[in-house]
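step 3/5: co-fold with glutathione
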Amino acid sequence: MPIAAVSRDKDRFPLLLTLAPSHYCERARWALDQMEIPYTEERLAPGAHVLRVKRIGASMTSLPLLLFGDGSICQGSDRILDWVKFSGGDSEIELRLEQTTAPLIRQCLYTGLLHDPQSGIRDVLLRGTSPRQETIGRLTWPLMRRIMVMGMNARQRLLPDLIAKVDIELDWLDHLIVERGDHLVGEEFGRADLTAASLLAPIALPQLEPVKSVSAGMRWPASLAPILARWSERQSMKWVHRIYAAHRPQAAPNFGRSQGYLHSA
Ligand SMILES: N[C@@H](CCC(=O)N[C@@H](CS)C(=O)NCC(=O)O)C(=O)O
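step 4/5: write tokens
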């Protein structure tokens, strides 16, 4: 289990509160890594995150959330990208990715994963959280699983329709990539590329850190495995792999310097 390896200077760094497998959280993590901004990641269990976020005084419960030493917060992956001032954005593309593509991908995957007791999703969600959250998370999993199914409308009978809707999003992206080339805006890696690659990572599954260890142990249910195999042939999925390989700073070298996981109570 990771890891309470937080440097002595941790109090100087902002805390990035995450739900580890969330693609919005990966978007924020990547932006901070990209701009070499030191931070400490605090991974929270679903459910426990609500109490933690409310204690901080945030108006919404969604993660990622960046908490600064003076108590101020920056909530939402889009705002975190604004804050780090990463250029190369395209608001139209990013809005569709954020508000349509990413929620559909999440709903589709959880619809498969939450209904398969062998999928490993409980352990993926709880890994890296505090021992207390992990214990409570295991004990309350049957209830939390139901809350997640209801919250995301992850009903099994919706799966074929969700897959079809994700296919439409991937058609759009395949087309965009063919049209624009390897970078969605301009000639260099930028915010739109980072947004697309991170938000598609849960279905592209690049075997690179930190995505690799975050999703380790996931066993794809029979309802999803052939679909993921089919999607892996798409331009957009191959593009995500290329972008991760070329541009995703690997988290590991930063850990000794400035980052780590923090276990919260
Ligand atoms: N637009 C937000 C969406 C964030 C979001 O939906 N986060 C999900 C995890 S994928 C979450 O925190 N869900 C739990 C909740 O809202 O309480 C962003 O870009 O940060």
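step 5/5: annotate
The beta strands are 15-18, 40-43, 65-67, 73-75.
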